[in-house]
Design brief:
- This protein is an all-alpha fold.
- The protein has 7 helices and no strands.
- The protein has one domain: NusB-like (N-utilizing Substance Protein B Homolog, Chain A).
- Helices cover about 65% and strands about 0% of the residues.
Length: about 160
């Protein structure tokens, strides 16, 4: 049988998806904010999530451990752009802002527009009715401060 006549077999897609990694990290950060859970327990809990096998585990760990390590600074940097105390933010928006702020500040390999867009998309899925607009505004201001040269080039 020639290569042209071979039936094509579609293998199941085994994508290691960064969006899933962000979703899992968001759930873990939220759990930490709500329950003050220990990071190791949160990571174990997220490993039991149905989407864990579809996520990029290394990126998930980078995000959740990075946010946990830098939470104080992330909240301080976010506080400059929110209209209330960070502790008064909705817990899901708080978690999204911390996750996206981590990418903006500590992961220059992620273009700033991608970090903002991913945060906005998470807010559309998990946040309140207009939470994505709030998240977008805060992240846009943070990006201008955290990555001024990249933002300036894009405008």
């Amino acid at each position: 049988m020639s290569a042209e006549n071979k039936p094509s077999v579609k293998l199941p897609k085994r994508s290691r998806n960064r969006r899933k990694s962000r979703e899992l990290a968001l759930k873990g950060i939220y759990q930490g904010l709500m329950n003050q859970s220990e990071l190791r327990k949160i990571i174990r809990d997220m490993a039991d999530d149905a989407d864990f096998d579809r996520a990029d585990e290394a990126y998930f760990r980078q995000l959740i451990e990075g946010v946990a390590e830098h939470m104080e600074e992330l909240e301080r940097r976010i506080a400059a752009y929110v209209d209330r105390d960070v502790a008064a933010l909705s817990p899901i928006e708080h978690a999204i802002l911390c996750l996206s702020a981590y990418e903006l500040i500590y992961d220059p390999s992620i273009p700033y527009r991608v970090a903002i867009n991913e945060g906005v998309e998470l807010a559309k899925i998990y946040g309140g009715i207009d939470g994505h607009k709030y998240v977008n505004g805060v992240l846009d201001k943070l990006a201008a401060e955290a990555r001024p040269h990249e933002v300036q080039r894009q405008r």
